[in-house]
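Late entry, evening session. Most of the bench is empty. Finally got around to the prediction I had been postponing all week. Sequence below, unchanged from the version circulated by S.P.
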Amino acid sequence: MDILTVLPSNFGYVIFIYIYSWIMLAYLAIKVGGARKKYDVKYPTMYSDKEQVFNCIQRAHQNTLEVYPQWLVFQTIAALVYPLLASVFGAIWVTSRFSYAWGYYTGDPAKRMKGAYGYIGYFGVIVLSISVALQLLHVF
């Protein structure tokens, strides 16, 4: 069975969202690496007792990593049936993680909420995943 005949024809958009998310994660990781040098926070220390800005940069990355596996699962389930809509929701979520991080990078944790619009994308793919599950169970 050829995978190109199994996946929806618009699944290529979803793959581009996965690539976009990889770029976002790489960017956040690079920012943490740079902050480690700037604020002299050696490995394996996760957080600094002295540098609040470093902690904010680290948390932006860490929080994204904490939610990323769940997002990937829901993104994939949703995309199997709704590839275009899942891609839009995925683009919203990934873009919001940049906004979240840039707000956090200011050193004022409250400014991370500039990325709150990402909940639209995150909950969007969860709702689509629920829809897929209900369809598979022949509920509607």
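Two things to note before I forget:
Residues 52-81 form the longest helix (30 residues).
The CA atoms of residues 89 and 121 lie 4 Å apart.
Will write this up properly tomorrow.
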